[in-house]
Amino acid sequence: MASSSAVASDASQARALDTSAGPARIGGSPFVHAGVTGTVRERIPTVIIDEHGAMARVVAGRIATLIRERAAAGRALVLGLATGSTPIGVYRELIRLHREEGLSFRHVVSFNLDEYYPMRADSIHSYHRFMWENLFSHVDIDAANVHIPDGALARADVDAACDAYEAAIVAAGGIDFQLLGIGKTGHIGFNEPGSGEQSRTRLVHLDSITRRDAAADFFGEENVPREALTMGIATIMAAREVAILATGEHKSGIVRRAVEGEIDRAVAATFLQRHPNTTFYVDDAAAVDLTRVATPWLLDEVHWDEALAVRAVTWLAAKQQKAILKLTQTDYAENNLTSLVARHGSPGAVNGLVFNVLGAKIRGKSKLPRGLKTICFSPHPDDDVISMGGILRKFVENDNAMTVAYMTSGNIAVFDHDVRRYMDFLLRLDDERIGDGTAVKTLVDTVHAFLERKQAGDVDIAEVQDIKRIIRESEAVSGIEVMGLNKSHARFLNLPFYQTGKVRKDPIGPADVAIVADLLRELQPDLIFVAGDLSDPHGTHRMCKEAIDLAVAEVYGGDAAAKCPEIWLYRGAWQEWPVTEATVLVPLSQEELTLKIQAIFKHQSQKDSAPFPGQDEREFWQRVEQRNKTTARQLDQLGLAEYFAMEAYVIA
C-alpha cells in the first residue's frame, strides 16, 4: 500500500499532467498506442488510471493532503461529497488513512451533493445512510459538520431548506474540494439534461435513464423516486477544486461527450470545461471512446505497431465501407494514415498484414484445446451460457474436463413472485404426495408472512434468500445439461462478499480469495475462463475477477515450479470484445447458436423480464443472438470468411 506522502505526490502529478504530451496515466503500462505527440482534443484535463485501487489512492491522497494542509493552518477543509459505487473506493482509502496513518477529520466540514425525495434518512436507499455506513461512522468527523440534503422534508419546506443549504456552504467558506461521479446522461449530482449553469440547490425531476440506472438498487424502476434534491451547477462550479470519476465501458460514451464535446445544457458535465481546476479520473474501460485512445492517428504522429495497425485498418475499412483487401492509397491518405502505409511500403502490404492477423484469430472446434482440465468461472449462475455457451459446448465435445464454478448465488435477481410460485408447488406436492404437512407448511407460512410485509428494497430473510439461491442453482444445472454436462460438473462457491442480501456488496476479502484458491489447488486446471466484462453495471463481474486474480497470485505466484493456468477472458451480457482486441474468435453454426439460446432459456427466473437488465430492455438471449451475429457480420464486411455467429475471447 502506498504511503500517504507517495499518494499525495501522485495526486499532485495527476493534477499537473498536460495531456498535450499524450495519454496521461498513473499505474500500469501505457496503451500500445501511447505514442501520440500532438495536442489532444480534451477540454477537461483527464487522467487514465488502469487500476481502481490506484484511482482511489490518488484521489483520497489529494483529499488527505488538503486536510493536513488546512489543519496545519488552523482551518477546516470543506468537502463536497458524492454517493454511488465509484467513490466507495475513495472512502475506503480515507478510512484506511484515518486508521493506519492518523488522518483526522475533526476539522472537516462536508456537504453532500444530493438526496432522493421523498426519502427517510434511515431508509436503505438514502444517501444519508450510505454516507454514514461507508465513511462518516468510520472516522472522527463531528456529526455537526456533516450536511446532507433532507429528503424527509414536507414539500412546503423544500425551497427554504435548499436556500439554507446554499447559505450553509457560504458560511463554511465555500467548498474546497468537490468529488463527483457522472451519470449516463452526463448528470453531475442530479443535475439532469436541461439544468442551467446558474442553477443552485433545488428539487428536480429525475430523468428516465437515471431512474432506470437506479432500478437495481430499488428492486424495480417503479420503486425509484421521481424527484431528488441536488446542488446546482453553479454550486458545483463554485468549488475551488473538482475531481470527477468514471469507471466502466458503460460510461465511455458520456466521458467522451463531457471531455471532448461542446458545452451543452443537455449534458451537465460539459459545464466543467469552464472550471479552472477540474480533473477527470477514468479507468481504461471508461476511456475507450476518447479520441487519443480510440483513434490517436487522427490527432498527430503515432508509433505504429501491429496491434495499432490492426485497429487503424479495421477502423478505416468500416469508415470507407470496404473490405480490408480493397483499401487504397487514397483511402489511407484521406484519413491521416499515410505514415502507416509508408512503414509497410504499400497499401497492399498493410492490407495483407491486417487481413492475416484477423484471420489467424478464427478458431473452429478443430483448433480449440483438447483434453485439458478447465474451469469456467461464472460470476452469476447464467453468465456461463450467456457469454460462452458456444465454446463451452465445443470444449465438452473436445473432451476437456470441464468444471463450471458459479461464484455467487445470484439470489437477489430472483423475483418474489417466483418464490411464491415455488411455495405453491411445495404445498401442492405436500398435499398430494407427501402428506405429513408440518415442515413444508411451516416454511411456506414463514415465507408468505415475510413477503406480505416486505417493502421495496428490504433485505430478504434467510429462508427467502436460500429459496432464491436454490432456484438459481437448479437453473444453472439445467443450463449446463444442454451443453452436455451435469450437476457433478457444477460448483457453487457462494462467495461471502455477495451475501449481503442487498445490491451493494462487501469488498472482496480473504475468505473470498481462499475459496477460489482452494478450488484452484484442488482441480489444478490447465485453463480457466474468467469474466473480463467491465460493463457490468453492478460491479459483480469486476469483483469476481479481483478474487480470481488474487487467488491466482496466491496459488501460483510464490511457487516457481507451479504452472499457472492459461486465462481466457470472456464478456458478459452487456458487451462483446471488439474483433481488434480479441485473441480468439470462435465461429458458431446456426445449430450451435440455437443450442446456446436453449441453455439460456433454462434460466427461467431471468426470462422475459430480468430484475437487473441494465439500459438494454431486450432479453438476454436476444442480446446474445444479436451480439454473436454482429461479430460474425463484422468479419464478413471486412472481407474475411462468412460465419453465422461468433464468440470472442481475450487470452490474458
Coarse shape = globular
* Biggest beta sheet attributes: 8 strands, parallel
Provide the residue-averaged pLDDT. Answer: 89
Helix content: 40-55%
Distance between the termini: 25 Å
Radius of gyration: 26 Å
Strand runs, count: 18
Strand order of the largest sheet: 1-2-11-10-7-3-4-6
Computed structural class: alpha/beta
Number of helices: 21
Low-confidence stretches: 1-39
**Roughly what fraction of the amino acids lie in strands?**
5-15%
General description of the model:
This protein is α/β, with parallel strands linked by helices and 652 residues long. 41% of the residues lie in helices and 13% in strands. The chain is built from 21 helices and 18 strands. It has helices at 4-16, 52-72, 88-101, 127-134, 158-171, 208-214, 233-237, 252-260, 291-294, 306-320, 329-333, 338-344, 347-360, 383-397, 416-434, 438-453, 462-482, 510-523, 540-556, 590-601, 620-637; strands at residues 25-26, 46-49, 77-81, 108-112, 114-117, 146-147, 177-180, 202-205, 227-230, 241-246, 278-282, 373-378, 401-406, 490-492, 527-531, 566-570, 584-588, 645-651. Strands 1-2-11-10-7-3-4-6 form an eight-stranded parallel beta sheet, with helices on both faces. Strands 14-13-12-15-16-18-17 form a seven-stranded mixed beta sheet, with helices on both faces. Strand 12, helix 14 (383-397) and strand 13 form a beta-alpha-beta unit. Helix 15 (416-434) packs antiparallel against helix 16 and helix 20 packs antiparallel against helix 21 (620-637). The radius of gyration is 26 Å and the shape is globular.
